[in-house]
Amino acid sequence: xxxxxxxxxxxxxxxxxxxxxxxxxxxxxxxxxxxxxxxxxxxxxxxxxxxxxxxxxxxxxxxxxxxxxxxxxxxxxxxxxxxxxxxxxxxxxxxxxxxxxxxxxxxxxxxxxxxxxxxxxxxxxxxxxxxxxxxxxxxxxxxxxxxxxxxxxxxxxxxxxxxxxxxxxxxxxxxxxxxxxxxxxxxxxxxxxxxxxxxxxxxxxxxxxxxxxxxxxxxxxxxxxxxxxxxxxxxxxxxxxxxxxxxxxxxxxxxxxxxxxxxxxxxxxxxxxxxxxxxxxxxxxxxxxxxxxxxxxxxxxxxxxxxxxxxxxxxxxxxxxxxxxxxxxxxxxxxxxxxxxxxxxxxxxxxxxxxxxxxxxxxxxxxxxxxxxxxxxxxxxxxxxxxxxxxxxxxxxxxxxxxxxxxxxxxxxxxxxxxxxxxxxxxxxxxxxxxxxxxxxxxxxxxxxxxxxxxxxxxxxxxxxxxxxxxxxxxxxxxxxxxxxxxxxxxxxxxxxxxxxxxxxxxxxxxxxxxxxxxxxxxxxxxxxxxxxxxxxx
Length: 538
Prior knowledge:
By secondary structure, the protein is of the alpha+beta class. It is built from 10 helices and 25 strands. Strands 3, 4, 5, 6, 7, 8, 9, 12, 13 and 14 form a 10-stranded antiparallel beta sheet that branches. Strands 15, 16, 17, 18, 20, 21, 22, 23 and 24 form a 9-stranded antiparallel beta sheet that branches. The longest helix is centred in the first third of the chain and has 17 residues, at 116-132. It starts with 6 loop residues before the first strand and ends in a 6-residue tail after the last strand.
């Protein structure tokens, strides 16, 4: 291909027979060079014909996309799991996305008795409402009826300080729910406070948490289908957290939402795709040409080939679907620039084992869960599950928990303040039946149910002057865990407060229980029949 000669070339050479070419512009303007004009366009067309670029290729582009389908909303949910291990009754709980994110129901804890800090915060809000209504003078009468009982020896913290000046929220709520306060003239303030108090308390809902696996297990009824989340870790509901359960019976069938769209297709863009314009500089951060490829890197070669050759053959059509629904496309027609109409089949129609973004057990469809991760707070409780090969045990290590006054308690720090005093050093050595393990290391002893089934049961470790018991909510004295839930890398289970805002502007709070991989094996230092200090044999 010959171009116009708007640039001259200088050949510079040295005595060692090396040379380079340097351009020398003939004019002071750059428009002629940037235009890249071709002197003989027929020659370029001939070369395209010789290479077969004009042979039997439909180079049409999509102009209009017509699609139709339906969306079936999530109508109900329920806790799942085996009935012989969990307390599940199989009853469906109705649900609509307008009530809030589904995470708040699936991940939330049981509505337990409010702790002392929450009772005091409720009393503070009641005092605030009295002040806003101009009834602060009635506070002594309220405290006389609903004040906290004063006890001796309470720790000097903010809860103790405020408990002397605010009423008890539990007693206020009990009388308001029964009919009214025992202090006259405060019906308006009481009604406003009770509405606020019911929003603050945890949502009354069945618990989906499996304490034997530290995972959530739930079923969702969507039209004629039931989707089952068997190992939901509490890290955000999505389509890949559920599978279709063909044997389960759904709740009452809901009316699907049918839709039909006409839209313009947009080209899919991604990093490293070839530039469309002749003089456009491509992004150097993703360079498929510089990728190192070995003989067996078939997957990498396919990715590079897709990105460089077929990257501009993909188009995208946005479709708005309701939150909390299962959407299927029944009709998809594309009209191209030549006026042709093409019916597009779904990907993987010829091979059911290959598809993307499809729930296992369904032919096609996109599941959009009504989920909102929200703003996650600091851990309220942390428990590590770890194996100890030297002691031939597994351990549930309760690293921190939240006390009754809302304060975070580090059990390692608490152990350092309360651990028994070791015996004084003896040059001749001292004998001990066993070493002392920190009280927040709770042993999980294996129990063989059958040759192929083992459970880890939480037991109390007998030690002199040391009591090993769980203090948080994730563990209890009757806890047992399946063996596969304590792998070699361990597991980390946390409780975290969550604040989320829904699409209607409403705020939702709950406590999320989440399970993540651990940090590997641990060593408790447990040993029996020891003499310290021990000397090596001569």
